[in-house]
Design a protein that fits this description.
Number of strands: 10
Order of helices and strands: EEHHHEEEHEEEEEHHHHHHHH
Strand order of the largest sheet: 5-6-2-1-8-9
Helix content: 40-55%
Number of helices: 12
Radius of gyration: 29 Å
Strand content: 15-25%
Distance between the termini: 43 Å
């Protein structure tokens, strides 16, 4: 059985004015040297480690190397080299255990200390500790500016935000692309419906551009505060546009005017959906140039839409070469998209009504 007074590890980290990150980690050293969390380390194995001659020094050498390999700190995704300042010695471990007395010889809580230099302009620091430490309760701060208290799970990574996000046109372009691929599966379905309803690839790309203009208008209005909070009811409406778009594509007899009005109208609706999806980011976006937001985000969306359309054009070309008649294949695809769209609409309405 594990010793009854086991304690979780804790860590205090401070970034000074020179961007040196100093961390002091307090942990149950004997259980770590066994390769087990404090909660799992049996008293019998701890006694063997501490009392059998040569056992403690041997494990100390092995686990010190493991500690250095498994303690990882990254700045914005880039791993940083650690400098170990102090690690409990064999003599310190034995002395602390003896000091606590025979009845309370475990846990033996001692400190390890290490430093790392944080590059200037870093936004996020990612911390990961050896899984044998179990959960680590960390108090991390940068002067009086940023402070975070977190519990880092065994073998898990946690982020410590130390700076304001860096905004650029590329950031917003990537944000817009990701909202379609891979996050916006329903958006991709709508692109499929528009593509299947177009008379040519050129017309499909034109409709995509008009759709982008539509959603950029409503996204702009929300970002500027001209339109209030977008509720969750926009989601079933978006699903409804997918179903209707597929039905129109199935019919295949829309006029040239409606072929332009439909994506423009539906784009206005989807723009509200985009705004709802990025509500938590709008406050930080307001710190950047609105022009950058709109150009970057909408250009990213448009690039993703074009990618979907071109991929569909290639797939459809292959399908058309099979024994399935092109018209029949197009209608089957439209029927499937409509079924999914209306089903998702009903599902989202049910979730809103039931409060799930």
């Amino acid at each position: 059985m594990a010793h009854p007074e086991w304690k979780e590890a804790s860590c205090v980290g401070v970034i000074d004015e020179h961007n040196v990150f100093t961390l002091t980690l307090k942990f149950d050293v004997p259980s770590y040297l066994l390769g087990k969390t404090p909660k799992e380390a049996p008293i019998a194995e701890l006694d063997e480690l501490m009392l059998v001659p040569g056992k403690l020094p041997q494990q100390h050498v092995l686990k010190l190397q493991s500690f250095l390999a498994q303690t990882q700190i990254s700045a914005d995704g880039t791993a940083l080299p650690l400098t170990l300042i102090a690690f409990p010695t064999v003599a310190e471990i034995k002395a602390q255990s003896a000091k606590q007395g025979e009845a309370d010889r475990y846990p033996v809580l001692l400190n390890a200390k290490f430093q790392v230099e944080i590059p200037a302009g870093t936004e996020k620091i990612t911390l990961r500790f050896p899984p044998e430490l179990g959960a680590v309760f960390a108090n991390l701060r940068r002067g009086m500016e940023f402070q975070t208290v977190m519990a880092i799970g065994a073998g898990e990574s946690s982020e410590f935000v130390i700076g304001e996000p860096h905004f650029s046109l590329g950031n917003f372009l990537k944000e817009g692309f990701n909202h379609v691929i891979p996050e916006g599966w329903d958006h991709c379905l709508f692109m499929m419906a528009m593509f299947l309803g177009a008379a040519s690839l050129g017309q499909a790309l034109t409709r995509s551009l008009i759709f982008t203009v539509g959603h950029s208008i409503t996204l702009s209005l929300v970002a500027l505060g001209a339109v209030g909070h977008v509720t969750g009811w926009i989601e079933p409406i978006i699903a409804f546009t997918i179903g209707v778009g597929a039905v129109l594509a199935y019919q295949g007899n829309a006029s040239e005017r409606s072929m332009l009005l439909v994506p423009a109208t539906f784009g206005l609706v989807h723009g509200l959906g985009f705004a709802a999806a990025v509500t938590d980011k709008l406050s930080s976006w307001q710190n950047a140039s609105l022009v950058q937001v709109l150009i970057g985000f909408n250009l990213g969306v448009e690039l993703a839409q074009v990618s979907v359309i071109l991929a569909l054009a290639l797939i459809v070309r292959v399908i058309w070469r099979t024994s399935t008649p092109p018209l029949r294949a197009r209608q089957m695809l439209c029927f499937g998209i409509a079924a999914v769209g209306f089903s998702v609409m009903l599902s989202r309405i049910w979730e809103l009504i039931s409060g799930r």
